[in-house]
Specification:
five-stranded antiparallel beta sheet; single chain; four-stranded antiparallel beta sheet; 109 residues; mainly beta
């Protein structure tokens, strides 16, 4: 479940929220939904992932809607350890998995 900071405390988000332009992945991979599904968590466009330490590698695996009921195989973008990753979240994004100790920020759309 995604978490949001409200009143200085982290709380789970149980209802659909508007898509966010910033995500933090820590520990296990985070799976989000894109604009190819109802209630997207993220929007397509240009994004930058910034590692939070010198050993972390930012990785994004994304699948898109090809046609009704058909989803593409995952496409992977991965940066070198300790270096930012610049990539594009694809239009009609179905699922997205973010991994690495990284801050993900949408830079344009």
């Amino acid at each position: 479940m995604p978490l949001v900071c409200q009143g200085g405390r982290w709380q789970t988000v149980a209802t659909p929220a508007p898509p966010s332009d910033r995500w933090l992945s820590v520990g296990p991979a985070v799976t989000l939904h894109g604009e190819g599904r109802r209630n997207p968590d993220v929007r397509s466009g240009d994004w930058t992932a910034t590692p939070q330490d010198s050993t972390s590698r930012c990785r994004a695996d994304q699948s898109t809607v090809v046609s009704p009921g058909v989803v593409s195989p995952p496409q992977t973008a991965e940066g070198p350890a300790g270096q930012p990753l610049k990539f594009t979240m694809l239009p009609r994004l179905f699922d997205l998995t973010l991994s690495g100790d990284c801050l993900w920020t949408r830079t344009s759309g």
